[in-house]
Predict the 3D structure of the following.
Amino acid sequence: MKKVAVIGFGFMGITHSINILKCKNLELTAIIEKDVDSVSEKLGQKIGNLATGEIDTEAFKKVPVYATLNSCLENEKLDAVHVCVHTDLHFPIVKEALNSGLHVLVEKPFCLDLKEGEELIKLAAEKSLILMVAHVVRFMSPYKKLVEMIDSNEYGNLRFLSLSRFSGVPDWGQWKEKQKNFGISGGALFDLVIHDIDFAAFALQEIPRKIESTVLPGKLSNNDYVNAIWQYPSRNLTVKIEGGNIFPTSYPFQAGYTAVFDNATVSFSTQTVEYIFIDDEKGRTEIDAGDLDEGYFDEIALFSESIENGTLPKKYSPDSALETISLCILHAKN
Ligand SMILES: NC(=O)c1ccc[n+]([C@@H]2O[C@H](COP(=O)([O-])OP(=O)(O)OC[C@H]3O[C@@H](n4cnc5c(N)ncnc54)[C@H](O)[C@@H]3O)[C@@H](O)[C@H]2O)c1
């Protein structure tokens, strides 16, 4: 069993912790949260813009909580950490963890500065440590099924792919502080729409030839709404990506896709989360979309396997996550 700690016990830290407890190769050895007292309070609360699993409060009560990585390492032996703090802290905390000889799974976005990302990738390679960025949509069942359909040509070639993701402005955890520090989180572009930008690049395994993007400001940044068209002329393919959080907090989270192939249109929405719909000449059929939440478990399982094997599959490399940051930068207005 590898010993792991979660750094930052907010919406994502809780989600990672729930899934580490389910993973037979991992032991949740510690929680590192600067606001130590908040950990027990959060166990009974609903945090975040979507449900990502139930907390086993009894299992959590046995896990020690430390305010810093340093104080944790004075008392515990760790193999890895899951970095779930806000984006502006990813670089210093991932660097500290790698320098302490720990494998790292860090939440998306990797970091907003390409040079920082390059430095972390180099450091992990020098120390022969696994560094993985948690791009969960790559692991979510309805999105994995779409990748299979694209790769198999089951419905012919893909001609048009529309990806969307909307949410109210986040108000849990530290997000209200981020509103006072305009731009620091990267806004919806780097926090929310990045899921679809990353997924499109991952699914197509190719960078678009041309990107046209419109962005609008919101409460967090100048890039809180994005509407982008990507062109792949050699594949006769157009991709549309739209998303943002310029809505009041009560606006419900929703995401999905419509993929137009030569012989069928395939669609999925979190509003009808159980099914993927396939429309063709014969009419509409539905297939099981699988469990969206299992994506969080599967990304952690891959991280754990990669620690065991000493290598991360290339398509999940931190370089691919940094390429996604480069793509996001191409959509941004500063
Ligand atoms: N993959 C996804 O689906 C997804 C969803 C939401 C957020 N995220 C990403 O996860 C990250 C965190 O977002 P969140 O919504 O969980 O935030 P949050 O505000 O809910 O949680 C952040 C936590 O980190 C703690 N913290 C701050 N500084 C710390 C430090 N130095 N040491 C230890 N703990 C510290 C805070 O007290 C807080 O509890 C962001 O980078 C965000 O982009 C990913």
Remarks:
- Residues 19 and 35 are 22 Å apart (CA to CA).
- The mean pLDDT is 95.
